[in-house]
Amino acid sequence: MNSKFDQFREAALDLAVDSFPESVDCLDSCLDNIEKYKEYVKMGSRLTTKNSLSDLLDEDQIHQLHMLMDKTKRVDLIEKGLHQHLHGIPEKRRQELLSEFFASKPYRVRRSTISRTIAREPTPFSPDMLLWQTPRHKNVILKQKREKSKNSPWDLMNTIGDQYYHLRKSIRVKYDSKFMKYCNESLLAIIGNDSFTQLEAMVQDSEQVEHIWNKYQQIIGYLKNEEDQLTAEHYGQFCRKIYRLLPIEQADLMSWLSPSQRFRIAEMIQDPDVNDSQVYEKLYEFFNKASGDAKDEADEVITLGCRKFIAHHLGDQLAEDIEDLRVAGGAGSSHHTAALLFVKHYEIAEAGELAHQKRIDESLSICKRIYLDYDGSCYCNGRSDSCDPKTFVCQNCTGGTVGYQCEKCPDDLRLDKSGNCSVALDLQCFCHNHASECIDGVCQECENNTVGDHCELCDVGYFGDPTKGRECTKCPCPKNGECSYNTVSNRIECNDCPKGHIGERCEDSESSYRPFTTEASTITLVDNQL
Fold first, then answer.
1. Which DSSP string corresponds to 294-310?
2. CA-to-CA distance for 467 and 474, rounded, in angstroms?
3. Are residues 236 and 118 part of one domain?
4. 474 near 328, Cβ under 8 Å?
5. Are residues 467 and 507 in the same domain?
6. Which distant-in-sequence residues (6+ apart) come within 8 Å of 347 by Cβ?
7. Backbone phi, psi, residue 408, to 5°
8. Which is nearest to 89 in space by CA: 45, 153, 154, 33?
9. Distance between CA atoms of 241 and 259, rounded to whole angstroms?
10. Do 406 and 394 touch, CB atoms closer than 8 A?
11. Considering the entire predicted model, what is its pTM?
């Protein structure tokens, strides 16, 4: 096209010289503009044929846009930022890049794998450090090892770090000392004693996780060569999981959204006429509409994210109690877990011990609606129809009952057949609070899934210990199978799996480790985790 245009211009000049000499100067004066136009056409072609956002912006520019979005939640500012960096880009391409930006991960997440070939390899773990791994954990690592071109030793180490971070506290306490020693020695060797002591003091002073990580980034920035810097970066990414110093952000719970869904949520957040509850209802709508792999990803992101969030802000024990209740299910379980969560939350908040209160409230709302599947309704065992609007604890319980759901009596009373609290029965009954009558010392009509002369055992298909006040919870096994407590591994195991399935909870296929898709799958996805 350009060659034909040049031929036409030369022909016009020849004609002007012969017949219209006064127009020659005019045509010559257009030459500069013609050249600029040709350059513009070339630039437009370049902008429309680039493959990705990273081809047009460097990592620092993308990082700045992510920081702006995280701080303001304003889509219009991101659009303006892209316009500044990509002046002259066609509208269609600009919208494509905007969607690509919302689908991309923040720089801080992606940084852990950059230039990994330059970093030294990590010190291997001793075999006794990994005895906690289940068959599912090992299978994930095995698959990564088979893809050597995609995964370095640091990637494998980070996956192990993720697995360990989500273990139940009762398992972690047995291995914490080994992993702490590993991290302490690795970091001391590369950043030195003075820098390590500074970080240690910040942790002991309970400084914010973000401040500790920023200090660490500053320290490794002063290391002498890039190999040391990248090696320290990798060790830092792993060890912050061991030290449990990961920041918990509301955005982490929404990483499963599609670019268009994120765009819609961001628009709602900045709309002054849209309240928070409407935003969370829209999230819940997106979650319910997801299917297939997208649904699995969303469920895993929210389940693990909420458990990590609850453990981080409100304690490991509460996180484990809530997860056990959630998995066990049953009438009113979502209300019970929500009450547990919010009572503890407001206890800590009123003591002034929670930083970033608004961010925490946002994450709590997502976890309440999706992770706990709680819609705000009251379940008070027929003894009340109102709940505290903040903690969701039942109010004005009848019959002298108390508890989050009007489910029990004060210590010196027992529930009678009419559902009221009355004077305790003869202690010789020893019914562990699961029966209201006994004949000749034998408890009658044991309740709450208990059996035995003294309601001291759990019924078939349930596990727990009524003698120690532990409720009988439904076994996490397919087809209502029986389970038992393994005193060696401290885990609940299914006694008998359906044909073709293996694993502690029948979660794996004998041939391909394919998860067993039943009601038990919700617990096998996060085996022994928080």
1. HHHHHHHHHHHHHHHHH
2. 17
3. yes
4. yes
5. no
6. none
7. -145, 175
8. 45
9. 28
10. yes
11. 0.51
Q: Which residues of 84-102 are buried (b: 16+ CB within 10 A; e: fewer)?
A: ebbeebeeebbebbbbebb
Whether residues 117 and 238 fall in one domain:
yes
Residue 2: which domain range? 1-46
Within a domain: residue 409? no
CA distance readout (Å), 473 to 113, 459, 460: 42, 9, 11
Can you give the CATH number for the domain in which 181 is found? 1.10.533.30
In a domain, 415, yes or no: no
| Segment holding 470, helix H or strand E | strand 470-474
Query: Bridge partners of 402?
Result: 408
Considering the domain architecture, whether residues 330 and 270 belong to the same structural domain is answered as yes
- What is the CATH number for 529? 2.10.25.10
Q: Are 393 and 343 in contact (CB under 8 A)?
A: yes
| pLDDT tens digits, 444-464 | 899 999 988 878 888 888 888
Q: Which two tokens stand for residue 128?
A: 């006794």
d(CA 360, CA 314): 11
Q: Can you give the pLDDT at residue 199?
A: 92
- 449 and 488 share one domain: no
- Same domain flag for 483 and 364: no
Residues composing the chain: 530
Q: Tell me what pLDDT residue 381 has.
A: 87
d(CA 196, CA 217): 12
pLDDT at 115 exceeding the cut of 60: no
**Alpha carbons 395 and 393: distance in angstroms, whole number:** 6
User: Any idea what the CATH number is for the domain that residue 333 is in?
Assistant: 1.10.533
Find residue 439's DSSP bridge partners.
442
Instruction: Kindly state whether residue 379 falls inside one of the protein's structural domains.
Output: no
Tell me: do 458 and 530 sit in the same domain. no
Indicate whether 294 belongs to any domain: yes
- The number of distinct structural domains making up the chain is 6
Whether the predicted pLDDT of 511 surpasses 60: no
AA identity, residue 490: N
Q: Which of 500, 505, 507, 498 is nearest to 479 (CA)?
A: 498
Domain boundary among 195, 225, 242: 242
How many of the other CB atoms lie within 10 Å of CB of 18? 8
User: Which percentage of the chain shows pLDDT scores above 90?
Assistant: 17
Of the two residues 16 and 171, the one the predictor is more confident about is 171
H-type alpha helices, 381-494: none
Range among 139-153, 196-210, 277-291, 391-405 with highest mean pLDDT value: 391-405
Same domain (yes/no): 34, 133: no
Cα–Cα dist 419/51, whole Å? 69
| Domain end marker among 103, 120, 148 | 103
* Higher per-residue confidence, 329 vs 376: 376
